[in-house]
Every structure is written in structure tokens, then in C-alpha cells.
Please model this.
Amino acid sequence: MSALPRDVFIDCVYRAALEDPNIIFISADFGAKALDQFRENIPDQFVHIGISEQNMIDFAAGLSQNGKNVFVYAMAPFVTLRCFEQIKVTLASMKLPVTILGVGAGYSYDDAGPTHYATEDLSSMRSLGGIEIFSPSDTSAVEYAAKLCVEKPKLRYVRLDRKHLPDIYSGSSDEALTKGIGCVRKGKEIAVLSNGYMIPKVIESTAFMEVSPSIYDVFQMKPMSANSFQESLKDYDVLVTVEEHFLTGGLGSAVAELVSDNRLNKPLLRIGIEDEYILNNGGRDHIHELAKIDPQSIANKIKRYVS
Amino acid sequence: MSKYEELINRSKWLRNEVFEMVVRQGKGHIPSSFSCVEIIVALFYGKLLKHSSSNPNDPNRDRIFISKGHASPVLYPVLADRGYFSKKELGKFTGKDNLLRFYADPSIPGIEAITGSLGHGFGIAAGHSFVSKKENRDFNSFVLLGDGECYEGSNWETAMFASHHKLDNLIVIVDRNKLCILDETENCVRLGSLENKFQAFDFDTVSVDAHSYEEVVPALESAVSNKNGRPKAIIAESVKGKGISFMEGRHEWHNRMPNLDQVNQARNELQLNCIER
Model:
């Protein structure tokens, strides 16, 4: 079994931090296996800030102003929403190159309920000026994002899944990843755009389809390159987005904006969480069924849209 | 004659400068600026701050954060006087494309961080003080908090963190003018003893008369010199609008502009020293 996304990311930061004392990693009482060796071996570059995300962001701003390459780390809903205004005021408006690392994309914490769901993190972070957003779908993309944050610090939000991710890009060059969009499966007529945990779910959904769509992984959500999109998507008749996030402001919205602003003139179906929080048990797949973003629902919605 | 004669004269100068700058544009918060004049003057003219406009990015400079950003105008005449930018800029406060903004931000020389939204300066300052401590850089961070700002919970997250990390180079000054926008703080939501509250967070804490250099200067000197592993809090008991009789202690003047008669009255009053010698 491959390493968890958080361990892949943190391990990459750790290896760089061993050589670079300016790298500081701050956690709001949230762990990872890879963080244990970081804390053990370079304790001066690790700060346990306590369960206080607001202070974490403002404190990180102060470190960043002194030339530190700062990573702030917590569960995705807390590190984005609990301290949203701190991110806006001290990081975004002062253009400070801090990496916000959130674990628990979408319904990752399936048993925990809406408090722990990150289903509006992307729309919130997208609304900020001057932030880059990554939602990696495999280990190579996680490593790519981590390397970028280590080597070219900038204000970024990296949304990681809690669970293991399948392999998509191993063997690909970093250059292929700079496009921010990758082809996962080659089909025709329909292009389904998704990212993170939903990529394998979209692949599963094709078993319920009569058509054979292409599947694209949009792991860089901001900025999205209009050129890369146009190049990748020009031959399709219909575009579909699938996301584990509310329909307002997430991947579907981002693609709709890009399609509209660049006159791509293609019908676009957005599949995501509708306007309701789900309070239930039964695991992530069951929550997906309730939210109608499970593979069968994805296939049904696409079928209805194209017929 | 007081040994603080020069600072007392500076107080008069600064209130006049701020008043004219704000009234000329009809924008800015006079009372919130006037309650902290002596604190700012003591820091900049009382040999307490290590800083120089000839090397504004000196990594070892002391940092000052006016976290109650609505008092930003109180810093501008001081920074101009200390050479951070031309005094002509004061006449163009809030003017189109000009340097000095309603709320300060780091595009203005001498300003460390953006303020305006409350409850951020303390945490940012803690970041600076943390670096100073870890790297033996020997600089202090001064944070001016409004007492109304102390309602923001983020401050108390920072307070807990600062004492845990023994940030004795972090000096918080609370401008305790007892007013927020709509009412007195004690009628709004009781702040009670901020001295006790900071003490409970393991700060070295002292209350002073914010308008007495006899109290403000020694408190700041002691906060700067006492490196005992504890962050410092100075509760500066102040009068909002200090120096203009009709504004003093009146919450409704928070962001109101005086009319012509009131401007004349204020100008007359500001020719006098409003603080005791």
C-alpha cells in the first residue's frame, strides 16, 4: 500500500527542511506518521500551535515576514474556514508565501459529519486574491505540489484526501504536471473533469454507462490554464465536472467560468453536492449515495444530460 | 519642570498634526488616535524603540503594530518626522493614489503589517517575537491593542501561546479607553479587569495612566528591560478623544467629524497642553 497523501507531502517537506532551517512547519494539533520524524529530528522547525487556527495563521504571517517558508497544517475544514479572515487579511492581502495544508477533502471524515467535512473549502479559498489551489489525485501529484511549495513558496492551499490515492502519474515528468490537468482515461465525445478521491469514482461510474468518456484530473484548481484546457478539451462535445464539494464555487464553477470566459461553447454538466448538509452514518460510499455523487448516480446524471 | 517636558510638547504637536490631517480630509478616527498619543510618543521619542528610517528593513529593528488599525493616523506624523516618508504626504492623507491610507499597511514605509480588522496584530507580532527569540536577534515587538479589540478571541489564543513560549520580547499595550462604537465596553460586554485577565495568561502586567509620561515611560522601560521569560502587558487607562473636551469619553465621536464651530473650538483646546506636567 502506498503512503497516505499527508505522509507523502510532509516527508517531502521534511527532507527539504533538514537542509533548510528556514522551513517551519506548524500544526494545530493534527498529526501524521511523517510528522513524527520531523518533530523528533528537527524540533526547532516544528511548532505545535495548539488548537487555535486563528493564531496559527497570524503567527505564520509573522514568521513569513521574517523570511521563513511556513507550512500550516490541520484538518481541511478548520485550516480554511475557522481562520478564513486571517487568511484573507494577513496572508492574502499582504501576499505572504505560506502553504496551507488541509487533510480531509470532501467527505473524507465520513463518520464525523458536517463539522469535519470539507465541502466548501475550495469555494472559500478560490474566492481569495492571489492564492494557488491544488487538489492532488495521486502520490506523484502530491509530491509535485509539495516540491513546488518547498522550492517556490507562494500562498497556496493544498487539499489532501484523508485516504490512500491510486496511482495516476508515476513515471510522468514534472513538466507534464505543470499543466495542472492530466488525462486519466482516453475516451470520446464526453470529457469528465474531476480530481482527488473522485477520480476512481468516476472511473467506476463508466461501468454503468453506454458511452465511453475521457476522464481528466484537474489537480490544479487555481489558476487554471485556459490554454491547457482548450488544448485538452477541444475535441469533446460535452463537458462534465464531478466533485466532492458543494456545487457553488468549486470545480464545476471554476470550469464554467473558464468555458464562459473563453467562449469554449460546450455544454457543461456539473455534478457535485447539492444545497444540503448530510447528517448520517454508513461510510463514505453511502454518504455519496445520499448526496447523489456515487458512481451509479454519476452515470445516471450524465445519461440524462446527453440524451 | 517635568523631566518629560519634551515628550509633553510632542503630545501637543502630535494631536495637532493628527487633527489637521484628519479634518482636512474629513476621514479618520480622531478619538481613537488621541487616546494613545502618549504611548506612541513615548515609544518613538522616549528612546524605547530601536529603529531607523535609513535602514527600515533592518532585521534587528524593533517592530511596532498598531493592531487597533483605526488609530493608524496617529503614526503617520511620527513616521514622517522620523524620516520614513515626506511630511508632504500628511497633507494628502487618503488622497487618490497617495501613500497614506485610512488603515495602514506595509506599502507605507515604517508599517509592519496591515491592520483594520481587529485581532490580527498580536498574532503577527508573536511570529516576529518568536523569530527574535529563536535566533537571538534581540528585537522587541510592541503591539497596541484596543480594549474593544480584546473582545476578539484570537487575541487570547495568542496570549496563551506567547506565555508558553516565554516571549518576553513581546510587549502588549492595551489602550483601555473603555469605549467601543456603540457604548461603553462595560455596558456592551463587560471586559472587567484586563490586568487580571493578562495576569491569568502569565503576562507581567501593570496598569498605568495612559496620559502620564511619569507612568507610561517607566512601564515601557521596565517591559523592555525585564527579560524574565514572561510576555508583558501594559493596561493603559486612557480617555478616548483626550484633548478635545467635547469628544472626551463620548462613544458617539468614534468616527464623526466636527463641524466648523467644533473645529475652531478643538483647535483652541489643542493649543493647550491637555496632559498634566
